[in-house]
Design brief:
Helix content is 14%, strand content 45%. It is mainly β and 139 residues long. It has a single domain, classed as Immunoglobulins (Immunoglobulin-like, Sandwich). The protein has a five-stranded mixed sheet, with no helix packed on it. The longest helix has 15 residues. It is globular and about 45 Å long. It starts with 5 loop residues before the first helix and ends with a strand. 16% of the residues are buried. About 13% of the residues have low confidence.
Length: 139
């Protein structure tokens, strides 16, 4: 029955499978936002990059935040990954602020919220009030 349409059916099924696994996301954007959540007026420094983009270094003052938006991508050869290096008052930390394998389709489809705190950095699952990820200061 499908011999007549063989290649078309295969292409359709492949596209359907990619869409179902998040590889095809039409105009869906995710925003990563990091905010200070500690007493005082000090600022913290960040540097963000992925395999394709270097978003550079930024100083985030108390009462402000840093955010960026992108279209997540999951393919057979990898998923979206953004890495942060963060420094605050002699403390330091490097971590994956966005990892498509961890975050897409179950944790933060539209917003990934992170807070810099006295003991480290906490991440929040979209729509939740309590953190689900914690990275302590490493230096």
């Amino acid at each position: 029955m499908f011999k007549k349409y063989g290649s078309s059916v295969n292409v359709f099924i492949s596209l359907l499978m990619l869409w179902n696994h998040g590889a095809i996301v039409a105009d869906a954007k995710t925003t990563v936002k990091i905010v200070p959540d500690y007493p005082g007026k000090s600022s913290f420094g960040i540097h963000c990059e992925s395999g394709d983009y270097d978003l550079g270094g930024h100083i985030i003052a108390q009462g402000s935040y840093y955010s960026f938006s992108f279209k997540p991508n999951i393919t057979p050869w990898g998923s979206t990954l953004f890495h942060y290096a963060l420094n605050w008052e002699g403390r330091g930390l490097s971590f994956e602020i966005y990892n498509g394998d961890r975050d897409l389709n179950n944790r933060c489809d539209e917003l990934c919220l992170w807070k810099v705190q006295l003991d480290g950095v906490t991440g929040y699952k979209e729509g939740e009030d309590n953190p689900d990820i914690f990275f302590p200061w490493t230096r």
